[in-house]
Every structure is written in structure tokens, then in C-alpha cells.
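User: My collaborator sent over this chain with a note saying "see what the structure looks like." That's all I know about it. Can you take a look?
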Amino acid sequence: MPESVLVNKAENYLKEISNDSISLDNIDDFDNFKNLYFKLDDRLNTLQKIKEDMDAQGYATPFTSLNKYGTKAVAEVTVDEMGESSRHNQIFRSRANAKKNILDRVKSAIDSHKIALGNLEQFGYVKCNSCYKKYSMSEYKQMEGKCTCGCQGFTFKIKREATQRIEIIPHLPLSGNYMVLRNGLSAYGRESLKQVLNILKQERKGVVKTISLVVRFRDKNNRLVRKNVTLDSEYVDNYEEEIRKMYGRHVRIEALRFHRTKPAIIDDKHARNALALGYVRYAEELISNIKDDILKRNLTDFKRINKYDEIIAKYENQTPDFIDKYDLDAIDNWRNSKIEENFKKLGFYDRFGSITRSLSRDLKKRDNIYMNILKNIASTLIIWDIFRYYLTTSNNSRKIDIGPFPYIRVELDREQRKVFQTTYTKVIETLNNFTDIKIIPVYEMDLLLYEKFKFEKEIRSSNIKFNHVALGAAIIKNHSDIPLENISNALNINESRVKKELKNIDKIKNPKSDKSKKFLDLIKK
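Assistant: Without extra context I'll predict from the sequence alone. Here is the result:
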């Protein structure tokens, strides 16, 4: 496919996606859920095919073709040739930029669709009406709606206990327009976006990926040879031995360099951007719905604050006709005088010409609410969701299953767990009071995750079947003072199941019989 045709095809398809709004109305209805899932899955397949075509045509490295220009010596180049070469360079550079930008948008759209499908996959599943076998939506689509028993009748079930937040789907950059969505955020939304990106970019301690060496040895003809060698990370502890095997015992290492990688919690740039935008834009929607109720409860005069904002908004962008539009100082003085005039009429100033104490107190309270609560809603939600995801899933399911967080690390190390040391207690209290979102403040979440990962290793060879959502709830119960009722309610799991997993944990940690002790010793080995 010609380059210009492929670029136009991608741009038209992304525009088609952006014009098709996503609705979550009646998502509990199977037909609505299925239609949305199938539509997003079909789009993802098309986007991946476009990306494959782009990769085949070198869109990932579009500027390499520019290297062949300017190869003549300066003395050999005439003025006309220099002008022609510069013009061609600009044309090719423009085309290279177009390739780079469209590929970037396609990658963003692909990751956004993966996030959307991962959330939908966790939201619900289907159950055969004949043999009662359960299928995920990806399996259901692959089977074309027909069970292995031949039945075509299914019942749609919602997984209340699974980690998902489908509400972010309409707010994802599904058309790859992440830059446009980022520019549309409010001031505190942009601050919130930085916070969420920093959470998702939290890197683990550096791990050696490759080893670069410069070695010197004598070949078969007794000639001295110097060579660059690259070894994989498996040779980090015995690279000298490996080099001697390759080039003989008299080889000398002249230079040595370890190349380290520091993978992030979400180890993909486009997935991080899409997730951050989805959560921040969803948080802004939440804020617009609850902001007034929060302010009414905390401020002495909510109507006065609204009037204060209304006057400032009215004059801050207004320019009178009798003032030269280039005289910025005069315009600012006029705006300030009009604002002061209106404030005086409404009694916002005291007799000393300053903002009244009660109004000043309300303004400070509002700023505090915005900066300490509203700005942190997106961070609170994504920290809770990732914490819950790790706590309520098995190591194998995180490797295999389609989840709400593409490219997430299967396990976190100490450095990555640091982001879970912050508990936004006031934000959680606000969400619980003003929305239907259920979150509990869990202190030292990083240590609970450490306990979960450690326990996963202990039960790796065990035959005990765990309910991993209940197991996560049990781990919280074992390491906190939170009532079991609150934990079960937040994780949507029955208390009786949690109690069963508490007993299973006790069996693993504190075996009673000699047989159990021997079995656990074998597991540890």
C-alpha cells in the first residue's frame, strides 16, 4: 500500500472512531454489553492490522531515509544543488513527521482499546444454559456464540468481585487523540495527570539486561584481535568464565559495561498515557457532579463564592473599546477597577478595603478542598484499583488473563511498591460520602502487597484451591484492624468465603499435623 494512502486510511479510521461516542447506558443488559465489546474488539483488530502495515513500511524509523542526503562534499555542491537538496529534505522530513505522528496515534488507540476491553472482560461473563459452562467474552466471540455442548443459549453474569472500572472507557483516547484530551483538562486536572503518570512510571530497581565487553585475544594465526562482545543477563555472575570458553584462557577483558533496565509498573508509554487520561477525565466528571455538594457542606456561604467567581469570570477576559488593545497595563487596571467596584457593591470588602474575613476563609477552604481532595481523586482511584488487582488475582492469572491494566508487571519489587505508601484518607471519605464508589482506607498497602507476593510463592505447589478475591480480603484482615464486614463490602465478597480463606492461610502458616509440616517443607524446597 502506498505511504500516502496508508496515512490517509489511518487518519480517516481514527476520525471515524472519534465521531462514534461510547455510551455505557444499560451496560448491564447483555445486548448492549455484547455490542460494545464486539465493536471495540473489531476496532482493535483493524488498528493492529494498520500498525502491522506501518511497521512493514518502516514507520517506526521514518527519519532513516534522510541520512542518504548531504553525502557530497561541500566543495562539490553548487548553490542550485544546495537549494534543491534543502527543498527535498524538507519534503521528506515532513513526510517522516507525518508517519511518526500517525503511528504514535495508532499505538495510543490500540492501547486504549486494550484497556477498554480488559475492563469489559472483567465486568461480565456468559454461562451456558445447558451445561452451565462459563465463558469470558473473548471466548464467547471466538466460539461465535455457540457452546461446546451445541447450545446457543447463554445467561449474562456480572462479576461484582472483579477489579474493573468501566466508567473510564468513554474518557480514554480511543482515537489516539491523547494530546487533545490532555489540553482539555482543567488546571487541577493537569496536576492530577502528572501525579497519576508518576504512579504508573514508578520504576523497579535496575536489573541487568545485557553485558557489553571489549576483549583482546590471539586468533589461530597468532594475530592479536580486539573484539566487542555482548552477553545476556544470565551471564552476569560468570561472564569471565563464558568469555574464556569462547576465546580461550588467555583472553583479556579491556572494557566492561552492564546495561540495566528499570521497568515501570505499567511498562508501556501509550498505555500509561491512556490509563492516566481515562482516570483523570473520569475523576473530573465525578468532581463536576459532587463539587457543589462538597462546597455547600464546608463553606459558610456557597452562593457568595459563586457570585465571586461570576464577577471575576465576567471581567477577566473583557476589553473595553475605548482602551487601546495593545495597552495591557491599562486593560488590567480597568478590569481590576470593575471587579473592585462590583465587590464593594456586594459587600465583599471590609471598611479597610480588604476581602472580608469570612469570604477569605471560604476561599482558602475551597482552595484546600481542590488541592487536597479533588486533585487527588484520580490518584486515589488508580492506586486502589491496582492494589485490589494485585491482591485479588493469582500470579498465573496476571500472566495469562486479559486484565484492566495492559503491560502491568506480574509482581512488584520494593521500589515499585513505594507508591502504595500513601493513603488518601480524606479523599476516600469524600468518595464514600458523595458517590457510590466503595473504597476503604488501607494503611501500609505496600506491606500487604509484599505479604501477598510472598504467600503466592509459599502456595505455588499447594493443591489447595483458593478463592483469590476472598484470599485478598483475608490478607487485609490478617494485617489490619479493619472490620471484616467493611473489607467484604469493599471487595464485594461474602464474609463466609473470607473466613474459609483465613483458615487456609492458617493451615499454610501454622501446620498442625506432622504430615502437613512435611508437605509444607517439600513445597518450600
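A starting point for your reply to your collaborator: Residues 79-123 form the longest helix (45 residues).
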